[in-house]
Amino acid sequence: MAGSISSLGIGSNVLTSSVIDQLKAADTASMITPIANKITLQQQKGQALNLLSSLLSTFQTSVSALGNDTLYQARSVSGNSSNVSVTASSGVSVQSFSISNTQMALNDVKESGAFTSTSSTVASGNGKMTLTSGGISYGIAYTNSMTLDQLKDAINTQAGSKIKASTLQVGTNDYRLILRSVDTGANQAITLSDSSGGSLDSKLYSAYDATTNPTGVQSIQAAQDASFKYNGITLTRSSNTITDITPGVTINLLADSTSTANIAITQDISAISSEMSSLVNSYNTLTSQLNDMTTTDTTAGKIGVFNGDSSINSIGREITRLMTSLDSNGKSLAQFGIDISEKGTMSFKSTTFTTKYKEDVTLSNTFFSHVADDTNKQEGVFTRLKTLMTRYTGTKGIMSNLTTGSDTALKSLNANKTRAQALLDARYEAMTARFTQYDSIISKLNNQFSSLQQQISMAVNGSSN
Fold first, then answer.
1. From CA 126, how far away is CA 118, in angstroms rounded?
2. N or C: which terminus of the chain carries fewer CB neighbours within 10 A?
């Protein structure tokens, strides 16, 4: 067919390939281009829907956080010092207290007498060494060939959950066995004995005495309970981490001190304020894009891809309506420093928010996140917004349906374009074939006419002679 098209017009000088191209271009403009333009617009709508879904999800993240009680149960702690550190779990009662006169709880640490090396044997016979800490006793079997290192390993293997053993080089040919209780508290004191009547080297269990037993076991650090004053009342605990005074409040003693730490556990308003700021930013980004997508600015020649689409236009209106509404107590987001200008831009004043929020924390929390119940059937503003956003972004929500519809429309348009193009191509293939036949006929007629014309000319010339 390519050869036929390239030679088309040779016979007639009229039915040329240029004529075919012009005719096909005109039909393409009327049949294919409108569909192609619709495909381009539908692709733009699909991209816009993806962007809109993403922006709605970002906005929903802040809405969900602000509609969740967890955010309002966050706590902040002030008054921590180098001596005391306090943490508070979400939802604990707002409170204040003082911690003073801290004395740290300590592990028990024992040091044996000196051995010339870690390979020195620790017993003259076989037997058992008994270690006790925290009311739990451990029997460590030994032999007459056991070394200091081997004894250390045996203690760690059998008693390691309560007592840790190590060796320490104190000086030249001076190695000691160091025993440390794992836990703190007075009841963690380590006691040592030889259950085998003296086979074990006394430097490992006999108590040190400067006069009578200078090579015995010394107490490097005596186990002791923590002691501190809580609101002026002296308390003792076996650990430096205290969790049993107020549920959800952990007090960590960090150093011995006579100073006072005044601790205040308050609601973490900064976390709420930060989330409010994120909400405002995501709202402004969302509404700005919605305005661009739905605009009809004929003066500027700007028409949004969703111009006239009521389902898209309603998104911004519904969100804004909820965010500017009053509850039954006359509260609105504007009173909390969240306002919308005449141009539709939302702003947030954190100082106004903090002041208003502190006026009545309970009522503020109810306004923000209350879930309707028998006592109060009015839902909080962000609880209602959560419901609205679920309608938009849920698995079977509005955005999902719009995206599915857009994808279906695009597939249909592409199929229509493919069919139209196939019909057009078939039409012009047939037309080219007919033109080729016509051109051939015209060429033959031209040749016959030329031959006849020559014969006539010859006859005329012969008559003249």
1. 19
2. C
Amino acid in the structure at residue 218:
Q
pTM summary value: 0.70
- The position carrying tokens 């390691």 is 160
DSSP bridge partners of 98: 262
419 sits in the region (left: phi over 0; alpha: psi -120 to 50; else beta) called alpha
Please report the pLDDT score of residue 4 as a whole number.
47
Strand partners, 87: 250
pLDDT digits (tens, 9 = 90+) for 258-279: 999 999 999 999 999 999 999 9
pLDDT at residue 439 in the model:
66
Long-range contacts of the stretch 393-396 (C-beta < 8 A, 24+): 393/53, 393/56, 393/57, 393/60
Pairwise CA distance, residues 447 & 459, whole Å:
19
Judged by average pLDDT, the poorest of 36-50, 326-340, 351-365, 372-386 is: 372-386
Tens digits of residue pLDDT in 197-228: 779 999 999 999 999 999 999 999 999 999 99
Joined together, the tokens standing for residue 357 give 């929020």
Which single residue is written with the structure tokens 């306004």?
367
Sign of CA dihedral 115, 121, 126, 132: positive
Burial 143-174 (b: 16+ CB within 10 A, else e): eeebbbbbbbebbeeebeebbbbebeeeeeee
